[in-house]
Write a structure and sequence with these properties.
Blueprint (H helix, E strand, L loop, with lengths): L2 H4 L2 H5 L9 H4 L13 H12 L10 E6 L2 H10 L2 H7 L4 E8 L11 H18 L3 E5 L4 H8 L5 E10 L9 H6 L23
Antiparallel strand pairs: 1-2, 2-4, 3-4
The structure holds flavin mononucleotide.
Flavin mononucleotide (FMN) binds next to strand 3.
């Protein structure tokens, strides 16, 4: 499959209920990564997009630790669960997303995880624009990550993100090949309420 076909897979397999920019459908989380490095310029662009996310009081609590070298990636694979290392070991870039739990006044920052999630969303969408794919992972051992990467206690460890170029489906194990397809979403009327919880929006 050619790269251009892969990049529109979301639109082939997903239908939106209302007209939206195709970028939202084309972002999905494949598991097959091509063994091809990501150009530093593209990395700068995707983290530039992540940088411009909104945050409570503009505190920008997100921090990313990247692993690109074989040594750094091997360290990351030590704290990622085996169900994920089975496919993410091919990803040329692994990123650990952290969020600072304290504000610049050293007070608890209620929105630290929410803001970090917004930043990841921006990054994931910019990856689509750059012809890259992303796959977030909660399946890892945060305590081990904290110890190995020397992460201070005031940072929450949010998620690991695999970043790279999409690989061939056939490179995956059979079990993963069956799941290598964009999924769908709950209907909009089960998600948006009006006035009070549970009352439909129409
Ligand atoms: C916080 C978070 C944790 C996730 N953890 C894992 C994981 O450990 N392993 C995995 O294969 N996918 C993981 N995913 C990917 C989700 O399963 C995926 O985003 C979801 O099914 C929607 O599919 P899509 O991203 O292809 O649209 C995670 C995603 C998020 C946002």
């Amino acid at each position: 499959m050619k790269h251009s076909e892969k990049s529109t897979w979301g639109q082939l397999h997903r239908k939106s209920q209302h007209a939206i920019d195709p970028i939202y459908l084309n972002r999905w989380s494949p598991r097959s990564f091509a063994e091809k490095p990501v150009e530093p310029e593209k990395l700068y662009r995707i983290f530039e997009a992540a940088r411009w996310a909104p945050s409570g009081s503009n505190e920008q609590p997100w921090r990313y630790i990247l692993a690109r070298s074989p040594e750094d990636r091997a360290t990351f694979l030590e704290f990622i669960m085996s169900g994920n290392t089975a496919w993410c070991d091919k990803a040329p870039v692994l990123a650990l997303l952290l969020s600072h739990k304290l504000s610049s006044r050293n007070e608890p920052l209620r929105s630290h995880s929410f803001d970090a999630g917004t930043s990841w969303g921006y990054l994931a969408l910019e990856c689509v624009r750059q012809g890259l794919v992303t796959h977030a992972m909660g399946g890892f051992y945060p305590d081990k990550a904290r110890e190995l990467l020397k992460i201070p206690d005031e940072y929450e460890i949010e998620v690991v993100i695999a970043i790279g170029y999409q690989g061939e489906k056939e490179a995956l194990s059979e079990a993963f090949q069956e799941r290598e397809m964009p999924n769908s979403r709950r209907k909009l009327d089960e998600t948006i309420f009006e006035g009070r919880f549970g009352d439909p929006f129409s």
